[in-house]
Design brief:
The complex is a heterodimer of chains A (112) and B (109). Chain A is mainly β and 112 residues long. Helices cover 0% and strands 55% of the residues of chain A. In chain B, 0% of the residues lie in helices and 58% in strands. The model of chain B has no long low-confidence stretch (mean pLDDT 94). The chains are: A mainly beta (112), B mainly beta (109).
Chain lengths: 112, 109
C-alpha cells in the first residue's frame, strides 16, 4: 500500500513568491494533518481536516498560510507571499479516527 | 498550551551502552506515543502507551508511562548504531498530537 505522498520533496524559491505544497493521504483515511518542523520549534501542528473539512487551524502562523482539501485524496498548503522564516520541513500525515497518524516524507522548503 | 519537554536534547554514546530518554509534561494526556525519525523521512510510530504505569517492550527498547500520565521514558539496552535517529514523544488528545522537541541520539561503533 502506498503511504502518504508529498510533493515536491524539495523546494527552493525567493522570498515573496507563492509556494504550494501537496499531499495525497492514504486511501480511506478521513483525517489529514499538516505539520511544520524546525530546529528551533520542533514539530508543530498547523491545521487538520476531517472528511475534507478544516477542524482546527489554530496552528497556522498567519494569514499568509492557507490550506485546502478539495477532495478526500488531495490537500494543499499554500504560502503567499513566502518569507525566509518560513523555511522548514513541512509534513503531511493521515489517519483513521483514533488511530495512529502516518507521516509522509516531507517537503524541505527553503526561502531565500 | 500543552507542552512536552524531552531530555536530553542530544545524546552521543558508544555501542553497547544503555540510555534513557525522558518526556515530561505538566498536562495529562489520554495516551502518549514515541516516534523515531530518520533524516529525510517522516516520523514513524514505535509505540503507544495508554494506561498510567504501563510498560511496553519492543526488543531492546522499553517504554514506560508515568502513573499520572504526564511523563514517559524510553530506555534502550545495549544500544546499536542502527538505533541512531531522532526520537520524539507526542501527547495525544482529541485527534491532535503535541510533540516534544526530540532527542537526537547517536550511537558510535
Amino acid at each position: 500500500d502506498a503511504g502518504v505522498i508529498q510533493s515536491p520533496r524539495h523546494e527552493v524559491t525567493e522570498m515573496g513568491q507563492e509556494v504550494t505544497l501537496r499531499c495525497k493521504p492514504i486511501s480511506g483515511h478521513d483525517y489529514l494533518f499538516w505539520y511544520r518542523q524546525t530546529m528551533m520549534r520542533g514539530l508543530e501542528l498547523l491545521i487538520y481536516f476531517n472528511n475534507n473539512v478544516p477542524i482546527d487551524d489554530s496552528g497556522m502562523p498567519e494569514d499568509r498560510f492557507s490550506a485546502k482539501m478539495p477532495n478526500a485524496s488531495f490537500s494543499t498548503l499554500k504560502i503567499q507571499p513566502s518569507e525566509p522564516r518560513d523555511s522548514a520541513v513541512y509534513f503531511c500525515a493521515s489517519s483513521l479516527i483514533n488511530q495512529p497518524q502516518h507521516f509522509g516524507d516531507g517537503t524541505r522548503l527553503s526561502i531565500l | 498550551t500543552q507542552l512536552l519537554e524531552q531530555s536530553p536534547q542530544f545524546l552521543s554514546i558508544q555501542e553497547g551502552e544503555n540510555l534513557t530518554v525522558y518526556c515530561n509534561s505538566s498536562s495529562v494526556f489520554s495516551s502518549l506515543q514515541w516516534y523515531r525519525q530518520e533524516p529525510g523521512e517522516g516520523p514513524v510510530l514505535l509505540v503507544t502507551v495508554v494506561t498510567g504505569g504501563e510498560v511496553k517492550k519492543l526488543k531492546r527498547l522499553t517504554f514506560q508511562f508515568g502513573d499520572a500520565r504526564k511523563d514517559s521514558s524510553l530506555h534502550i539496552t545495549a544500544a546499536q548504531p542502527g538505533d541512531t535517529g531522532l526520537y520524539l514523544c507526542a501527547g495525544v488528545g482529541a485527534q491532535k498530537l503535541v510533540f516534544g522537541q526530540g532527542t537526537r541520539l547517536t550511537i558510535n561503533p
